[in-house]
């Protein structure tokens, strides 16, 4: 009886050349393609009844969390343009526009 698989490579019959292409997802806030790490963010916080999730870079999510309270995020909802009208957010998005998708940096806390 013949072997179905090579003794040293039991998965040799699988076609390894055809890997499924990775779908590139754009960040909800900055619009850049996401890198290796994707954060699924609730634009309306779960504590405020939010169910929808959007893909974001970790640094973009941290910027939103730093600059807005849950109440403010609830008011904006899924309105990206409303968030981008905020000067600190606009400044951040303009700054991060030319960075690598996996770029990360420490963020300063908002002075309240």
Summarize the structure in words.
This protein is mainly alpha-helical and 112 residues long. 29% of the residues lie in helices and 5% in strands. It has a two-stranded antiparallel ribbon. The protein is elongated, with a radius of gyration of 21 Å. The relative contact order is 0.17.
Q: Tell me the fraction of residues in β-strands, as a range.
A: 5-15%
Q: Tell me how many strands there are.
A: 2
How much is the average pLDDT?
84
How would you sum up the major sheet? 2 strands, antiparallel
Number of helices: 4
Q: Pairing-aware structural class of the strands and helices?
A: mainly alpha
Radius of gyration: 21 Å
First and last CA, distance: 77 Å
| Low-confidence region ranges | none
Order of helices and strands: EEHHHH
Q: Roughly what percent helix?
A: 25-40%
Overall form: elongated
Strand order, largest beta sheet: 1-2
Protein name: HNH endonuclease
Keyword list:
112 residues, mainly alpha, 2 strands, elongated, two-stranded antiparallel sheet, 4 helices, HNH endonuclease
